[in-house]
């Protein structure tokens, strides 16, 4: 009891102390954001260019560093950051040329040129402990400059996706200053403190205990890609402060000591009740972010019986009432999606709309009332809206708006068809209606679940377990701290890992989604898969998908052919259902409008709305101070 009281006291002290620990800066000129990944273990080290974890989201990737390119899901584009334009390949993809943006400077006044890129790439290739060493060593034959703003990469073999190593999407290779690193004996042990910035802010101060890091706007902000592209960032200071669990963030924001929080749905409800200035991504229900490029759901292990049978996988899918499912998981506040890419507005336009007619006409190999069964339900968004109204929420009637809010559709709730699929494979029910395997033993499904009850992955496990229990299957959830390793080793039947590797989010290229599925990466149960996510973690392969992936590797990612291959790959995944997409990641943010307004909310989604993403520096020029003190 005394220990619990001590923990509560320390948490409260953190919340109250918060901003007051950082003395001498005006609150009205300071934006405060929570640190997503926790307290910094080595707060004096700003060298994030090694393979060691260094908490890049304490402002390093959001404010200090500019990549060559930045992926932007809300805009649906790739932003040319330090690069002046997109990558330039030769005809057979054995050479890539990068043209740099002129007039960009490091924060110590030295211009950023091709010399920095060439030196940094060669340094990475020399030291195995540097990030991207393996990728660069595998593919780069040589790198050189042709002038101060042009870098050429000669590749050892064709690679139409080599540039993606430099596209920042919560991680990428980012340039570091030659004139600083060339003077140190060992770039791996170098602290890079004080750090030199290519972004619009420089380090002002940090907490030796690792709770906070303070950044100050550069006087020459206009000599950075952020300033050139979007103008002057409005806050003079940005403070990243680790408040810990969601309750602390609620208290801090209610006291106006935290402007941007990442919290749970339960905490958000408490927040808006306590602070009239707080808001979510949407001002009204369903509140959540719908531009997050992660797709949630669950994965079947297709090397485990009976999940190696397509009929079984489809039966379990049709045993789900998606509206009830999302109601269990997030009170209906998450956008549903049938494809292995999230139903964010960008992908709805690019892929969901393109595949809508195909989905409506898609049939399973089973007849209902003498006709092939069409499993797609294009009215699911209307049912989701009705659920919301029954819960007392106000939602619009316009179907296009509803699709943007709740997703464009999902599979029909068809337990009768699911029953037919199972029975034709020898499954039966006992006298109590419980399903039996073909050998007559009870069917029990074990789901390996994320250990955090508020995480969308865990919520998927909760929802699907209830749906399958309703259908007559004995289901057990097994939350575990080791569940990611369990998934990667294939020691599972069903897991709530992502149903596919995450797409770029702001570009049509789906190679990132498909590549790990190629049969050349297949590993038997007990060996680590390339990833624990999606069909790769589930040991599923298909020669048709191999062909799609191999063709993608030979075409430009901007080409029409590449997009057509993406559509073909999505169709194969729908037909085979090796994993089941359910809803897009429902990001829950809490923004305080007491000091700052014009956040990138649903009414004006000018940028991905997360303060932990590297795109955050591009949000800051759009914020507006309220003038409150």
TrEMBL record:
CDD domains for this protein: PBP2_TmCBP_oligosaccharides_like
Pfam family, one: SBP_bac_5
Domain Solute-binding protein family: 79-515
InterPro entries: Peptide/Ni-bd, SBP_5, SBP_5_dom
SUPFAM superfamilies attached to this UniProt entry: Periplasmic binding protein-like II
GO-annotated biological processes: peptide transport
GO cellular component terms, semicolon-separated: ATP-binding cassette (ABC) transporter complex; periplasmic space
Top-level taxon of origin: Bacteria
Protein name as annotated: Peptide ABC transporter substrate-binding protein
Organism from which the protein derives: Petrotoga halophila DSM 16923
């Amino acid at each position: 009891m005394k220990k619990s009281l001590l923990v509560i006291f320390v948490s409260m002290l953190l919340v109250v102390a918060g901003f007051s620990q950082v003395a001498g800066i005006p609150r009205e000129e300071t934006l405060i954001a929570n640190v997503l990944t926790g307290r910094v273990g080595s707060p004096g080290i700003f060298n994030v260019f090694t393979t060691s974890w260094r908490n890049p989201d304490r402002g390093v990737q959001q404010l200090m560093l500019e990549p060559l390119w930045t992926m932007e899901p809300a805009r649906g584009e790739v932003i040319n950051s330090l690069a002046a334009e997109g990558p330039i390949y030769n005809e057979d993809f054995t050479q890539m040329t990068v043209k740099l943006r002129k007039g960009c400077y490091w924060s110590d006044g030295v211009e950023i040129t091709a010399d920095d890129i060439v030196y940094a790439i060669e340094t990475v290739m020399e030291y195995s402990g540097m990030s991207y060493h393996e990728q660069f060593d595998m593919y780069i034959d040589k790198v050189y400059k042709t002038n101060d703003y042009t870098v050429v990469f000669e590749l050892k073999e064709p690679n139409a996706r080599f540039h993606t190593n430099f596209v920042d999407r919560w991680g990428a290779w980012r340039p570091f200053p030659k004139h600083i690193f060339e003077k140190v004996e060992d770039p791996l042990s170098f602290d890079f403190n004080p750090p030199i910035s290519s972004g619009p802010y420089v380090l002002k101060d940090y907490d030796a205990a690792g709770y906070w890091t303070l950044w100050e706007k550069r006087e020459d902000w206009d000599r950075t890609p952020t300033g050139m592209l979007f103008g002057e960032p409005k806050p003079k200071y940005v403070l990243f402060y680790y408040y810990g669990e969601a309750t602390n963030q609620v208290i801090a924001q209610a006291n106006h000591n935290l402007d941007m929080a990442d919290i749970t749905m339960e905490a958000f409800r408490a927040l808006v009740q306590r602070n009239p200035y707080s808001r979510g991504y949407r001002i009204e229900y369903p509140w959540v972010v719908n531009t997050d490029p992660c797709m949630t759901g669950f994965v079947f292990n297709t090397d485990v019986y009976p999940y190696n049978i397509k009929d079984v996988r489809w039966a379990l899918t049709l045993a789900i009432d998606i509206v009830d499912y999302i109601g269990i998981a997030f009170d209906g506040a998450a956008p549903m999606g049938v494809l292995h890419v999230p139903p964010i507005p960008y992908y709805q336009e690019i892929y969901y709309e393109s595949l809508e007619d195909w989905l409506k006409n898609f049939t399973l190999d089973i007849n209902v009332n003498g006709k092939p069964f069409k499993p797609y339900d294009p009215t699911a968004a209307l049912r989701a809206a009705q659920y919301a109204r029954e819960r007392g929420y106000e939602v619009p009637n316009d179907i296009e708006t509803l699709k943007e809010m709740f997703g464009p559709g999902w599979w029909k709730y068809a337990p009768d068809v699911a029953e037919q699929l199972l029975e034709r494979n020898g499954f039966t029910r006992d006298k109590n209606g419980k399903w039996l395997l073909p050998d007559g033993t009870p069917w029990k499904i074990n789901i390996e679940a994320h250990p955090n009850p508020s995480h969308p992955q865990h919520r998927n496990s909760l929802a699907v377990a209830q749906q399958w229990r309703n259908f007559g299957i004995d289901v057990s959830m097994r939350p575990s701290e080791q569940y990611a390793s369990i998934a990667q080793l294939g020691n599972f039947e069903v897991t709530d890992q992502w149903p596919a590797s995450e797409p770029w989010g702001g570009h049509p290229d789906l190679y990132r989604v498909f590549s790990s599925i190629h049969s050349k990466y297949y590993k038997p149960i007990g060996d680590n898969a390339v990833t624990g996510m999606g069909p790769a973690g589930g040991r599923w392969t298909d020669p048709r998908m191999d062909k799609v992936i191999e063709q993608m590797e030979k075409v430009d990612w901007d080409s029409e052919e590449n997009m057509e291959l993406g559509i073909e790959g999505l169709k194969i995944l729908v037909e085979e259902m090796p994993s089941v997409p359910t809803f897009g990641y429902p990001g829950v943010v809490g923004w305080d409008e007491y000091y700052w307004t014009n956040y990138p909310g649903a009414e004006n989604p000018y940028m991905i709305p997360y303060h932990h993403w590297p795109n955050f520096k591009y949000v800051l020029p759009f914020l507006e101070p309220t003038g409150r003190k």
